[in-house]
Sequence to fold (351 residues):
Amino acid sequence: MTVYTRWLPARRAAAVLHAMIEACRLQIRCLCIVAVTGAVLTPDPVQAQRYTGPEGRLRIALAKQPFSPNGLSRGPETMASGGIQQILTGLGAEVRVAEAQLTDEQESEYGGWKRLSMALGHFAEIVERNEREGWFTVGLLATCPSMPGLVAGLQQSGPSHEPIRVGMLWLDAHPDFNTPETTRSGSLGGMPVAVATGRALHRMRQEAGLDPPLSDQHVVMGGVRLTDPLEQHLLDESGIEQLTVDDLRTQAPAVFDQLDRLARISDVLYVHIDMDVLDPAEVMGHGNKVPGGPSSQELAALFETIFRRYPKASAIGFATIPSTDEGGLSLAAVNRMIEGAVRGLKAREQR
Fold:
C-alpha cells in the first residue's frame, strides 16, 4: 500500500499513518482465515459488563481521586457526601465508596505532579477492580488531570492481560489539549487529553497505567468553546472529532453518529465532564467558566440516553466542582447528571 503524505503537514501525515496502522491492526484482530475449512472466524469480543448484583440491585461505585497538580482537593469528598448516595439508594442501587491514596513511602514525595502521577496509578487500580467485580464507576475527580487514571483502569479491565480499547466522550469548555511546548499558562489542567493521547508527559501517563495511549479516533470532544492558538493548531492537525453545544443540548443525530462510531471501534466507553462545560449560572465559582454552555438538565437527559442505549458505556467522571458554591447549585448539578446516567444504566440493565 502506498501512502501519499508528501503534501500533508508532518503532524497530519503522522496522524494519517497512525489511523491506517490502527485500521490494519483491527483487521488483523478481527479476521482469522482458517485454511482447512475456508471459514472466517472472529475472536470473542469483550463482553459488555453487567452492573446488577445477584440480589437484583444496581451496583454503583463512587471513586474519589483527590490529588490535583497543586495538592489535595476537597472536591471529590464534597461530591461524595453531598446527597448523591441517598439519591442512588433511592433508585434501588447499592453504593460503595473508595478513594485513591499514596503509600507511606510515596507520601514522602514532594512534587505535586509526581504525587498526582503515583495517585493515578492507585486510582486506576480502583477503577479496574470496580469493572472486574461488576460495579459501575462514577469518578469524582479533583481536576481533569485525573482522567488518565480512570481511563487506564478501564483499559486494563479486560478478560486478559491485553489492554482493551477505550472510547472517550470529553465534555469540557476547553479541549485540554496543550502540551508543555504550547501552553500559555503552564497549567497541567490544560493538558490531560494531550497526555492521554501520547503527546506529552509520557511518564505521567505510564505511571497512571495508560499504555498504549488513546488514539485520536477514540476521542470525541463536546462543548469546547475556548482554545489557545497553538492548542487549536494541534487540534486542527489531530483526528479528534467535535460536537457543538447545540448538539449536546438537543441530542442531535451528530452525537449518536459519533457514539455509534466509538462503539464500533471500542470495547468500553467513558464519559468525562469538566464542570466548566456547563452554563456559568450553575458554576459561578468555577475559575474557568465560559459563557454559552448547556444546562445540567440537558446533560442529565443526554446521559440517560447514552447509558440506556450503549451497552459499552461503562463509566462516567466529574471533575473540578467549584470550591465556592453559593446556593449549592454546582453540587445539585452534579447530582442531577449522575442521577441521569444511573437512570439510563438501570433501564439498560432491566432489558
Notes: Confidence is low (pLDDT under 50) at residues 1-12, 28-44. The chain is about 40% helix and 15% strand.
